[in-house]
UniProtKB/TrEMBL annotation:
It is a multi-pass membrane protein. It comes from Streptomyces dengpaensis. This is Ammonium transporter. Residues 17-59 form the Ammonium transporter AmtB-like domain. It is found in: Membrane. InterPro entries: Ammonium/urea_transptr (IPR029020), NH4_transpt_AmtB-like_dom (IPR024041). The keyword Manganese does not apply.
């Protein structure tokens, strides 16, 4: 993708959008890809909870 090449792979492409092509045996380095995605999603959930809590506190 042009966007992935323009940013040096920082943003990446849509190769694995929707977890396509990722199975239980997919490994990125020494960490299973599903475990890494779960780890990243915990921060996404925590961020959403912090923002909604801050909005609820202000109103």
């Amino acid at each position: 993708m042009i966007l992935a090449a323009a940013f040096g792979g920082l943003i990446g492409g849509l190769k694995h959008a929707g977890m396509a092509g990722i199975g239980p045996d997919s490994v990125q380095g020494t960490v299973p890809t599903v475990l890494f995605a779960t780890f990243q999603l915990t921060f996404a959930i925590i961020t959403a909870a912090l923002i909604s809590g801050a909005i609820a506190d202000r109103s």
